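TICKET: design request
STATUS: open
ATTACHED STRUCTURE:
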């Protein structure tokens, strides 16, 4: 954009900001500490001009807008702190199913691709027995709440517009099959049932639901979900840190796509692989 075009855009945005606030040129001159003649030149219909740095800062501050927005360098009208507050938000639950947030964001992104990296196994593919075992000792979510939340997520799988990709490390599934770590107290029968049921679900809902298994020795990821192009959320425990800025969402999307590109077990093989782990128990 050349200087003349930027001056016309500046005038248009400045005039719009004044109109939306019910202010006139004299009001702006007083608030920004400028001569009225200076304001008139900036808003000239025929030959608008750009302000100097000090005048620009005063105008932006008095109108509570971003100087970058006035100059056409940003599409966000608000000042930086307000933009950050909107772009990054905490979502938390006090003894309520954290997945209430996930479910709402998932519904919001209906018809768009959802990319998900779970903390262990994906809740949407867990049996009720595994959920009951996992949440039996937690003080922030009861097994019943976990099961109800998962049922709601599973119901979304039956919708024709569903497009969900999940990336999990191959070692996480193999560790589950062996009963390692968190799963050390879960019987082999329950682990077998879980894996066979999970494999069946993957084959039933493919290609609307796709699981990719990457190598933990080759790639690492914190748990997060990308909801279409609107939002990304990283899981912090009993809280989600949610991002709505386009650049942030693209960053998470790029990271997920990298996990998919380096998957050791591809989505069309995942159902059979998972079921095979169960059959081997």
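STATUS: resolved
RESOLUTION: sequence designed for all positions
ATTACHED SEQUENCE:
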């Amino acid at each position: 954009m050349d200087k003349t075009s930027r001056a016309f855009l500046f005038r248009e945005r400045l005039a719009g900001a004044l109109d939306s606030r019910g202010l006139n040129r004299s009001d702006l001159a007083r608030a920004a500490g400028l001569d009225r003649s200076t304001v008139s030149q900036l808003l000239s219909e025929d030959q608008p001009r750009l302000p100097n740095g000090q005048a620009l800062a005063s105008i932006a501050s008095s109108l509570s807008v971003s100087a970058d927005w006035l100059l056409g360098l940003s599409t966000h009208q608000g000042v930086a702190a307000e933009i950050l507050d909107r772009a990054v938000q905490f979502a938390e639950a006090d003894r309520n199913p954290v997945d209430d947030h996930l479910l709402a964001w998932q519904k919001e992104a209906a018809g768009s691709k959802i990319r998900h990296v779970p903390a262990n196994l994906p809740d949407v593919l867990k049996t009720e027995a595994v959920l009951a075992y996992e949440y039996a000792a937690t003080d922030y979510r009861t097994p019943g709440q976990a099961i109800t939340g998962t049922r709601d997520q599973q119901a979304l799988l039956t919708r024709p517009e569903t497009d969900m990709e999940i990336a999990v490390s191959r070692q996480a599934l193999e560790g589950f099959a062996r009963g390692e770590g968190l799963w050390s107290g879960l019987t082999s029968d329950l682990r077998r049932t879980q894996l066979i049921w999970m494999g069946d679900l993957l084959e039933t809902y493919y290609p609307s639901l796709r699981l990719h298994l990457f190598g933990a020795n080759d790639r690492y990821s914190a748990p997060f979900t990308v909801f279409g192009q609107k939002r990304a959320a990283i899981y912090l425990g009993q809280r989600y840190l949610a991002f709505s800025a386009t650049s942030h969402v693209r960053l998470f999307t790029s990271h997920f796509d990298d996990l998919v590109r380096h998957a050791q077990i591809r989505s069309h093989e995942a159902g059979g692989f998972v079921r095979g782990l169960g059959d081997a128990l």
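CLOSING REMARK: The beta strands are 88-92, 114-117, 164-169, 209-214, 224-227, 231-235, 239-243, 263-265. The chain has two domains: 3-78, 88-279.
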